[in-house]
Amino acid sequence: MAIAKAERLMNLALCLLGTRRPLSKRELRESVEAYLEAGSDDSFNRMFERDKDDLRELGLVIETVENLDGEVGYLARRDSNRLPAITLDAEEAAALGLAAKVWQQARLAGAASGALQKLRAAGLPEDVDPYGAHSALEPRIPVHEAAFEPLMLACRDRRPVLFEYRKASAARPEPRHVEPWALECWRGHWYLAGFDRDRGAERVFRLSRITGRVRSRGTGFTASVPDVVTVRETVASWAGEIADRSALIRLRSGAGYPLRAKATKVRELGDGWDELEIPYGHGLDAWLVEFGPDVVVLEPAELRADVVDRLRAVAKG
After folding, report:
1. What gap in Å lies between CA 206 and CA 168, rounded to an integer?
2. Among 15, 172, 176, 183, which is least packed, fewest CB within 10 Å?
3. pLDDT at residue 183 is higher than 90
4. Ramachandran angles phi, psi of 160, nearest 5°
5. One-letter-per-residue 3-state SS of the chain
6. Contact between residue 307 and residue 297 where contact means Cβ atoms under 8 Å apart
């Protein structure tokens, strides 16, 4: 059915773009095969109005013109639906070339290559070689998670999804019903931002913690999509990157080098332990749990309690 509708929209668009005068509904019905198969005038009228709205939503400028006899006709003038000439200087072309080199998986690599070919035809400077072997910059954004592609399509199509998600502090995954908004890469990891229907709030999910298959669940969003989705800022806050306090921990000697790199103060305690003062932000408890018995939280008390709770949850399985 999706293919049939796409073909019907394409035929209608070609009719509207190919005419030099406005075409009436009757003429359009006789020109598009799918409209001839409509069972009644009412069925055709509903189908035509939906198709016309869909084409306008896709960006086609359709004019409605009334002739001297009062009959309404439609056309899409080519000059109104033609993109302006694309002019790129060497720096802009180089930036586009670098962007096209980022994607490694086949699906987006093909689209990027096709886009560059069209830009070359439109006047991309010939002395700019976006795929040159001697480029000083070799950007790469690897995508290893199987969930990336279905989530990318779900974000594009505004389709709710269902997947199993394992939190850092949980031993088993649990189902999450999400309205996906945006995907973003931060420090080598991909994250999804969206509206969690079960919790009734915005959430950010790390793709590497999604298990099993991502499945579509119905159509339409129940929550409005914000104009700006701050994935990186949210993840940075949850990861403790945004900190306004300090925590005091005891760390086993020779362990926890990432913690040592963040420490503002380090004091040797002896007996194989050091005392560290580190920035304290939201999500620090989840990070400390990853170091297991090599870390003991001294203060503040609420951080110590959160770490203990997470360790007990893991121990219970």
Report:
1. 10
2. 172
3. no
4. -65, 150
5. CHHHHHHHHHHHHHHHHHCCCCEEHHHHHHHCHHHHCCCCHHHHHHHHHHHHHHHHHCCCCCEEEECCCCCEEEECCCHHHCCCCCCCCHHHHHHHHHHHHHCCCHHHHHHHHHHHHHHHHCCCCCCCCCCCCCCCCCCCCCCCCCCHHHHHHHHHHCCCEEEEECCCCCCCCEEEEEEEEEEEEECCEEEEEEEECCCCEEEEEEHHHEEEEEEECCCCCCCCCCCCCCHHHHHHHHCCCCEEEEEEEEEECCCCHHHHHHCCEEEEEECCEEEEEEEEECCHHHHHHCCHHHEEEEECHHHHHHHHHHHHHHHHC
6. yes
Summarised one tens digit per residue, pLDDT across range 220-274 is: 888 888 877 777 776 666 555 556 788 999 999 988 888 888 889 999 998 999 9
Handedness of CA 68, 69, 70, 75 (dihedral sign): negative
- Are the beta carbons of 160 and 282 closer than 8 angstroms? no
Percent of the chain with pLDDT over 90: 22
Residue 86 amino acid letter: I
In the chain the first and final C-alpha atoms are separated, in Å, by 46
pLDDT band at residue 160, thresholds of 50, 70 and 90?
A: very high
Q: Which residues contact 36 (CB under 8 A, 6 or more apart)?
A: 29, 30
User: Cβ(159)–Cβ(128) under 8 Å?
Assistant: no
Mean pLDDT throughout 179-192?
83
Task: Give 212's contacts (C-beta < 8 A, 6+ positions apart).
Answer: 163, 164, 173
Name 190's bridge partners: 185
Q: How many other CB atoms are there within 10 angstroms of residue 187's CB atom?
A: 10
d(CA 237, CA 257): 21
Strands 72-75 and 23-24: antiparallel
Of 8, 13, 157, 31, nearest to 78 (Cα)? 13
Cβ-proximal residues to 299 (8 Å cutoff; 6+ apart), any chain: 247, 248
